[in-house]
Amino acid sequence: MKDNTIFQIIFAVVLSIGIAVFAFFLLTHFTPSNSRGDNLLNFYDQDHHGDIFILGNSYVNEGVNAYIVEDLLYKKHINRSVYVLGIVGETPLHRVVEVDNIIKSRPGMVVIGLGRFNLANSTLTFENTTIETRERMSLFLERKQINERKLTQEEFQPFYNDDQLHLQTPFERFFDNRKFLVYHVHEFFLNLLSDRPLLTANFKDPWQSTKNLSEAEKKEIVGNNKNQYAISEDFNLQKKALLYTIQRFQTENISVIIVVLPINPMISEVMNQSSRDNLSNFLNSTGVPWYDYEREYPSEYFIDTAHLNVAGRTDFSRKVATVVADNLRKGV
User: What are the structural domains of the chain?
Assistant: First the structure.
């Protein structure tokens, strides 16, 4: 009887551990696999020869409607598919790992939506980012190792340290996924309950919020983040990453234009002229066409201090279509 009890206890413990490991596998394998980063990788594995990609952060996702851009291009006798491929919190430094995948899908033009803070001194560290972006980097490095070639230290050494470039074994990746589990579970329920769903697999529809912050709430956000918008004349990591991205695309005969994204005039008011001059000087040095829409719209066109609402998005999408059409005609 005693032996049977011990056996039952051991069996129950082993069974419990097995169920826990299996549940962990299901959660960490299938939940992150529905992330926008993972779906972007699958998107880039497809042939998009001649298509137009619009890159950037959430300002792009909520600021550009791909259908409006496509429709206006079509009316100008330009039949191109347009995709909005922004990621929350993305900066040029984060996008470096994505460049090879974008090139592989062969777009005809890449529009880089640039928020002014993207090149600011406050965004220099890779750690200063969202957990989604950190997971995305792991996904891209893993896919590069498996499907393309061994990642060399020299390729990304100017941008990342050895820990960030560490290529995980499948065993390491299995347990590392736990870091992103809470984020993805939170995202799942957020998408169910929120009026502002984070579209993970749709690269056409814009993200939308039906709620606009009050002017007082917008001013409070600006007041708490005044120091984020200073751009120095130094050639920092973000500028280096943007220049690297541009040069890689141009080497592969992919046209590049830069669009400085609109921001709430409340932010413009706290930006000094030297920051604007430093940004202009750097963008001029890239040699690609760029367009400045920073002060294009009043506060009423924004849901907050940077994300456009329906009225802002509709008008800005038309402007993006116009500059894309003009550059395609020029053969840029």
Answer: 31-330 (3.40.50.1110)
